Amino acid sequence: MKVSSWGRLSSDEHNVVPLLDLARVTGTLSRSAPGICFGMGRSYGDACLNPGGTLWKTTGLDHFINFDAHTGRLVCEAGMLLRDIQRMAVPQGWMLPVTPGTQLVTVGGAIANDVHGKNHHVFGSFGSHVISLRLVRSNGEIIDCGPGQHADWLYATIGGLGLTGVVATAELQLRPVQGPWLQAETIPFLGLDEFFHLADGSEAAWEHTVSWIDCLAGAAGRGLFMRANHCDLSVPRPKSRHLAMPVTPPVSLVNAWTLKPFNWAYYTATKRKAGLAVCDYESFFYPLDNVQNWNRMYGPSGFYQYQSVVPRAVGKDAVQNMLGEIARSGQGSFLAVLKTFGDKPALGMLSFPQPGVTLALDFPNKGRQTLALFERLDAIVRQAGGRIYPAKDARMPRDLFESGYPRLDEFLSYRDPGISSAMSRRLMGN
Amino acid sequence: MNQNARKKIVIVGATSAIAEQCARLWVQGAGVDMVLMGRDAARTERVADDLRVRGSEAAIEVLTADFVTPSAVQKTVDEIVAAGPVDMVLIAHGSLPDQFACQDSLNQCNEALTVNGISPVLFAEAFAGHMQQNNKGTLGIIGSVAGDRGRKSNYVYGAAKGLVTRYAQGLQHRLAKSGVKVVLIKPGPTDTPMTAHLKGSGAKLAGADSVARDIVRGMEKGAPVVYAPAKWAVIMMVIRHLPRFVFNKMDI
């Protein structure tokens, strides 16, 4: 069947093989390898694709195995959605320590991409909370690994883009939480100096920090800084509203005519109600999850996301240059995010987060002019000693991948020869 | 929680994807006592472990049983009911056979009729007797839209489900004056392991979780017939009423 990833840049025929039963994973792999795991398909580019080949659909592996409400330790199958973990654990006073901007991803995907969230400066990335995992290799070998046993396999698999084997089960350490509520504050800022000032001043006292920036404003960089802490409040949760993008519009709804007014309106409206507010974790962490198929708004050509991280020392200049390039190009989207990462090193050999500042923006796919802009952004990232996030990527050049991920050679020896993705062929040659 | 308020729910064929999704809805936020019956102990335990985490107040018991020998079915049901009256039973087991295999082999044909038709009826009959005595309870039986009209692509399965349909109708008649509700559930093609081979052909399948929501709601209301999703009620009405000369030209 035809399968696309989140960016909808391609739609190719795949042989989709569901993994339904832990006991039969080994047999299924040996019959259908080579392939790559596909969970919710929320990787933006080609990390989860294998055109013409096999995809192992993992969402049938969606069973909890055990949860200890005293210690917060959870064992589950790797196709489990983060949403289902949150909904099970929050009423019992626990929560995933790290989640990305959507909870509609699987545990296996969160490990394979070593995802991060708004609290990176406190909790690091997802892989830091994996107590152990079970890796099934295409040759039938089963490797149980954790920080205390076969730790090298754990560190190859965290952020390993699904290339070391199939993660069948994982044991995760949750963090205690008072309830579903957060106290959030929104502060408008102008310019990167103000942003860094706010970020540095907030990290000690606020668990979650993130910023929206207006990608058209260039180096002047107006934006909205959001910070939040969990709080104790015993009122019932609101019923979430569900919207959907029922069809794909013939052209991108995000374009030169809509972007500027939208960014202006969003900035102005949010600025007006800036200040403190209490909100539910789902609406704070996963605002877009309530709009089903929002990725369709970019039209039939799909979209790219460009997410980079650059070291803090050169961060301000690099981000300033990137914003300048983007503003000059007139491309971009209102989905633009700026965040400082903490100093906690990620465990994975190919983990994306590193100390510094990360900038993430969506770009409607306009073909060559979009790719040309990315080359200019690549040059800035390369010079700054930064890297690009593979989970979001569909096009980074191989040399930038190699310079951004110095542990690549070490990683390659852990690859499963029966696993290959469009991304692995593009960036690693096979 | 008041022990008396806890509902006792029995699911026959608990590893079926639709049944499992129903069970997840039932254990969420409510303390229930649940008995899961399956043919394969390990697979049923996997479902049970999951439900124990999802419903921290639920008590889940696993039972493996013989699904086809009448005396064994009677004994299993008697034992379950002996432990206390049952509020809800969902009979959900089945397997979608290959129509051509059933045409080629009477053994396959026999097995398909037994698993999808006779076995569900035996379980329903055994539970119905107890429920009638207690004058309460809801008995849900999963039939299929395939039971509404026989067609060449799966009439052996359809015949078994048609048997379930006619049986449920009669049981509803018998229990009409009692406090027992009999709910016949007719899912359309649903995205489950049973239909995995249909997906490649581009068939649009409903999610097992949304089908389960319709079933749980229908059983709550005690609706006599639940099509899931509801649109299948209309589609099947049309299919049932198509004149034969039109129907026989269709490749379905």
What's this model, at a glance?
The complex is a heterodimer of chains A (430) and B (252). Chain A has 430 residues and is of the alpha+beta class.
Question: What's the structural blueprint in terms of helices and strands?
Answer:
The complex is a heterodimer of chains A (430) and B (252).
Chain A: E1 2-3, E2 12-13, E3 15-18, H1 25-32, E4 35-38, E5 54-57, E6 64-68, E7 73-77, H2 82-89, E8 94-95, H3 107-112, H4 120-123, E9 130-136, E10 142-145, H5 151-157, E11 166-173, E12 175-176, E13 181-190, H6 192-202, E14 208-213, E15 222-230, E16 243-244, H7 256-272, E17 275-280, H8 281-285, E18 291-292, E19 303-310, H9 312-329, E20 336-341, E21 356-364, H10 368-384, E22 387-388, H11 398-404, H12 408-412, H13 422-428
Parallel strand pairs in A: 3-5, 4-5, 16-18
Antiparallel strand pairs in A: 1-2, 6-7, 7-11, 8-12, 9-10, 9-11, 13-15, 13-17, 14-15, 14-20, 19-21, 19-22, 20-21
Chain B: E1 7-12, H1 17-27, E2 32-38, H2 41-54, E3 59-64, H3 70-82, E4 88-91, H4 99-104, H5 106-134, E5 137-142, H6 155-174, E6 180-187, E7 190-191, H7 196-199, E8 206-207, H8 208-221, E9 225-228, H9 231-241, H10 244-247
Parallel strand pairs in B: 1-2, 1-4, 2-3, 4-5, 5-6, 6-9, 7-8
Helix pairs in contact in B: 1-2, 1-8, 3-5, 5-6
